[in-house]
Design brief:
Layout: H1 6-15, H2 18-58, H3 64-73, H4 76-108, H5 119-126, H6 132-138, E1 140-146, H7 155-172, H8 178-197, H9 208-238, E2 256-257, H10 271-299, H11 311-323, H12 325-334, H13 339-356, H14 366-382, H15 386-389, H16 392-403, E3 409-410, E4 412-415, H17 416-428, H18 433-452, E5 459-463, H19 468-482, E6 490-495, H20 498-502, H21 504-512, H22 515-524, E7 527-533, H23 534-541, H24 543-563, E8 567-573, H25 585-590, E9 600-606, H26 608-614, H27 617-634, H28 637-669, H29 674-681, H30 684-687, H31 712-721, H32 732-740, H33 745-754, H34 756-770, H35 774-781, H36 787-808, H37 818-846, H38 853-874
Parallel strand pairs: 1-2, 1-9, 2-3, 4-5, 5-6, 6-7, 7-8, 8-9
């Protein structure tokens, strides 16, 4: 992005709300105090010199060359400390913005006006629609947590930030006395000091079970408590009296996970890891259910004199006493004349026994637990205690329905080629270690289903599905692994390349001829799931062409499902970054092909997105409500008809944009020498040293010979670090120019106003462009020694920026997104500081100079710290 004019930055500063400005100043001041205490006033002075210089550069009062010269003067160890300072600042600034966002959400949540994009707003909009109840009954939201390595922060850093967040909340809490605020301030300073002293870089590589345990933090701290609140919101919106009547909202959220199950390209995920991952899930969810049941049981002090138990509950208590006299006697002694309390505490003991594997007392299934909870609920309702029946007890029932005893369905993923090789080896009788592992994985799926039920693990995703044979291979391998005892499997084809997306419906035709598929259709109500890969299609085709190709695949698959009487669920493999299908989730849902949502939405939640969306209860609740709001609205006839009309009206125009954009994109990315150039101008090689996850960054070793060697995540991550953000916009300008050259500007503007898909494509590109800095990007691009590539990239940037503004009618990027625009403008100078530090390290490491091991290690540390800091500043990695 060209330098922000002084007036724009001043506007961003003056627009900053007082509460947010106060928090940023408070946290920044405390960080400055910590830096001075640790490194002396000289270190703080250097940090301030760089901070003021990058702001001055944005005002055209100094030059990038001047800043580069300043940065080059510092010893590497001093530069490392300065990089740490800016990185810590971004962690604190992000925290302050999160607090402000939560504050605003609470202020906007008023009784008389439903919160925008909430469940209440969706129900209000659908009130009177004859399909409302049908949509509610069939509603499904399936977020799938993945271990793709896009969370640049160490878990220790994340937890330190969470502690700071808690103390900031205490400091700002209304009604606090002076002593309380002083103590909160002292604790803030203590935790910021610890954040400064905590290494930002991982010293060891994560293994898959580390990733499983990290994801469990989101469940423990947020999801378990948040999910019933969302159901409560929907129930309250549907009809007055929630909490005093049987709920109208069912449990419609089902979490899935690839963490510990996704072995495509990750040899560290083994059958043993998959087994252990499920056991970790079970430990966490059973502990949470036990604690909740104990808490509710202890507070259920309703006396039998005022709330008499039903005959069924009395009989159940009597039977429990016969089977477990000591336990029931102990509970009764602690809760005399409180039968509902006795029963719920007995239930809590049974959940504990389930966790311990005490088979005499344990529940055999979640359904048995739900039956016992409904027994208490019905008894309370019969006794007139409806608030007790449908209050916290209903929350617990919803939690069991949502999470079961397995927490999240573990999904297995493997590459189709691995299955093909395994079948050849089985036919030859000579099995490799990898083929033995494939068979062991299927046996573990069988064990999981025996232990936790079919729902715990039945989906098997096949990467790079090219034909129905790739689906048949999984069922054939299951037969070889376990014979007649083969587990229940729903094989999910994953279509990723442009060609595979085009052929997806034909592959499904072939699937229908497979006997195991026909058998599953008869068992599951003719349900079929298909996964669409956003990351690899965008890397292959460019963002604009991939968007249209994915849309066409959705439309074709929707038509296929209607023709074959199949209930289709599309599984969207979207990343967090815009170059991997990211962006506002609710807008993405509303932009889907007509009929493709149908009340069901399944999507991957990857890396940093997990903690961004599920790190705080209020934000998690908001995210889920926004998505569900969009799922409901996108499934209505009005929205579907409008989308179909717009797609028909602008289809020819969209094809022109897609064709020209793909040509421009391929002209760059398929040019001889491009992969090697990309490795030189970006910290691609060094990103692997961040130890972001257990999965290798590429399919081979060394610099990529082609983009096929490189996974989509480091592709996007590395471009973000260069401040180019190429995967989010490259080629779109050429696509728009092809239409404008034929006098189609007005039609493009109409498409932007009338077609959600086209608007989302341009809005996402605009966000990527806003996070691009042309001046700094030029310095990175120059490192590769290819002026022709530099010219191509910058010309396309200028073209795309100009035409996106012309089509949207905006006078500047993000003009209609004030909050995001303000955040980008305020962050840009500080990201610039880290970029200059990174450029120093990258330039030295790329030069042909003889560096000592000590010098190379110091520069590598500086580079990795700056990568971490830029990721925090831009708030996305891959």
């Amino acid at each position: 992005m060209a330098a922000i004019a002084p007036a724009e930055r001043h506007s961003a500063v003056t627009e900053m709300p007082d509460e947010l400005r106060a928090d940023v100043r408070l946290l920044g001041g405390l960080l400055g105090q910590v830096i001075a205490e640790h490194g002396g006033p000289g270190l703080l002075a250097d940090v301030e010199r760089l901070r003021k210089a990058v702001i001055a550069a944005r005002r055209n009062e100094t030059t990038a060359d001047d800043i580069a010269a300043m940065v080059a003067e510092w010893p590497v160890d001093r530069a490392v400390h300065i990089a740490r300072a800016f990185t810590c600042y971004f962690h604190l600034a992000n925290l302050a913005e999160e607090h402000y966002r939560i504050r605003i959400l609470r202020q906007r949540d008023k009784d008389d006006v439903p919160l925008r994009e909430s469940l209440a707003e969706a129900v209000q909009a659908l009130r009177g629609d004859e399909r409302l109840q049908e949509l509610i009954d069939g509603l499904e939201f399936r977020p799938v947590l993945t271990a793709h390595p896009t969370e640049a922060r160490r878990r220790a850093v994340v937890t330190a930030i969470q502690r700071i967040s808690a103390h900031l909340g205490e400091y700002n809490a209304p009604g606090r006395g002076t002593g309380e605020r002083e103590e909160a301030l002292r604790r803030l300073l203590e935790e910021i000091d610890l954040l400064w002293r905590t290494s930002q870089l991982r010293s060891t590589k994560l293994d898959p079970l580390d990733e499983v345990r990290t994801a469990m933090a989101a469940f423990d701290e947020t999801l378990f408590r948040t999910v019933p609140l969302i159901y409560r919101s929907l129930d309250a919106a549907l009809e007055p009296g929630t909490g005093t009547r049987e709920p109208l909202s069912k449990a419609f959220i089902r979490y899935g996970s690839w963490i510990g199950g996704d072995r495509d390209g990750n040899p560290n995920v083994t059958a043993k890891v998959t087994r252990e991952a499920v056991l970790i899930h079970a430990e966490h969810v059973l502990t949470a259910l036990e604690n909740a049941a104990t808490r509710i049981g202890r507070t259920m002090t309703a006396s039998a004199a005022y709330t008499p138990p039903s005959a069924e509950l009395r009989a159940a208590l009597s039977a429990a006493e016969d089977d477990h006299p000591d336990l029931v006697s102990e509970v009764a002694t602690r809760s005399p004349q409180e039968p509902h309390r006795q029963w719920l505490l007995f239930v809590a003991s049974r959940i504990a026994a389930t966790r311990r594997r005490d088979l005499d007392l344990a529940y055999l299934s979640p359904a048995d637990l739900i039956a016992d909870l409904r027994l208490a609920q019905d008894s309370l309702r019969t006794a007139g205690a409806v608030r007790q029946a449908y209050g916290e007890l209903q929350h617990l029932i919803w939690q069991v329905e949502t999470f079961g005893f397995h927490l999240a369905e573990l999904e297995v993923r493997q590459h189709s080629e691995v299955h093909a090789v395994a079948l050849k080896e089985i036919a030859s009788g000579k099995l490799s270690e990898r083929t033995e592992e494939v068979l062991a994985t299927i046996r573990v799926i069988g064990w999981i289903q025996e232990r936790f039920g079919v729902r715990a693990c039945r989906r098997y995703v096949v990467s790079f599905t090219r034909s129905a044979d790739d689906v048949a291979a999984v069922y054939e391998l299951a037969r070889h692994a376990l014979g007649d005892r083969a587990p229940v499997l729903d094989v999910v084809p994953l279509f990723e390349s442009g060609e595979d997306l085009d052929n997806s419906a034909a592959v499904l035709d072939g699937m229908l001829s497979l006997e195991p598929v026909r058998r599953r259709l008869a068992e599951n109500g003719r349900r079929v799931e298909v996964m669409l890969g956003y990351s690899d299609s965008a890397k292959e085709l460019g963002p604009a062409a991939a968007t249209l190709r994915l849309y066409d695949a959705q439309a074709a698959l929707t038509d296929w499902a209607a023709e074959n009487d199949v209930r289709l669920t599309l599984f969207h493999g979207r990343g967090g970054a815009l170059g991997r299908g990211g962006g506002p989730a609710n807008r993405a849902v509303l932009a889907q092909a007509p009929g493709s949502v149908a009340g069901r939405f399944k999507v991957t939640e990857q890396g940093e997105v997990i903690f961004a969306r599920y790190g705080h209860s209020a934000i998690a609740r908001r995210h889920i409500e926004q998505v569900t709001n969009a799922v409901l609205l996108a499934s209505t006839s009005a929205v579907e008809s409008s989308a179909a009309a717009a797609a028909s009206k602008f289809r020819t125009l969209a094809d022109q944009v897609a064709t020209a954009s793909e040509q421009a994109y391929r002209a760059l990315t398929e040019a001889p020498g491009f992969p090697e150039w990309f490795a030189l101008v970006s910290p691609l090689e060094e990103i692997g040293s961040l130890r972001l996850g257990s999965r290798p960054a590429r399919r081979g070793l060394g610099a990529p010979r082609s983009l096929d060697d490189l996974r989509a995540i480091p592709w996007v991550f590395a471009w973000a670090q260069t401040r180019v953000n190429l995967p989010g916009w490259y080629g779109l300008g050429s696509g728009l120019a092809a239409v404008v050259s034929e006098g189609g500007l007005d039609e493009l503007r109409s498409a932007y106003r009338e077609w959600r898909l086209f608007a989302a494509m341009l809005d996402n590109a605009e966000m990527s462009l806003a996070k691009t800095d042309r001046s700094i990007a030029s310095r990175y691009l120059a490192l590769g020694g290819r002026d022709d590539f530099v010219e191509q990239v910058l010309d396309e940037y200028d073209r795309t920026r100009k035409l996106v503004l012309e089509v949207t009618g905006h006078t500047r990027l993000l003009e209609n997104r004030r909050v995001l625009s303000r955040a980008v403008q305020l962050r840009d100078p500080y990201v610039d500081a880290l970029s200059h530090l990174q450029l120093r390290a990258l330039s030295a490491l790329r030069a042909d100079e003889d560096l000592s091991e000590e010098q190379r290690e110091g520069l590598s540390t500086l580079l990795l710290l700056s990568v971490n800091g830029v990721a925090a500043g831009l708030q996305n990695t891959g």
